[in-house]
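For homework, think about our next protein:
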Amino acid sequence: MKKGILSLSAVMLLAVAMSAQTVKQEVKKDAKSVGNAVEKGAKATGEGVEDAAKWTGKTVKKGAKATKKGVKKGAKWTGKTVKKGANATAEGVKDGAKWTGKTAEKGAKAVSDTYKDVKDDIKKKD
């Protein structure tokens, strides 16, 4: 009976050892697969980051170019508008000066006429 138990124990030990070897090989294979997947993922991430950096660079260049054009157009428009405003102001000042002159003449004439009327009234009363 001792021999049977010993034989059975030896067979069990051998089975466990073989099973452990198989498990070890499976773990090794799985670790290798994970390593490969991580490597592929890192490579893909690196490529994605590189592509995104290129795209961002191109977009920034386009944006800077568009901004420069916009500023240039804005400056031209502002220049034209300022010129128009200055011309309109000059015309307005000129027109205002004419109107003020005419109005001042009318006012002076009215004052003169009133003075004459008052002077005549004073002479009549005396």
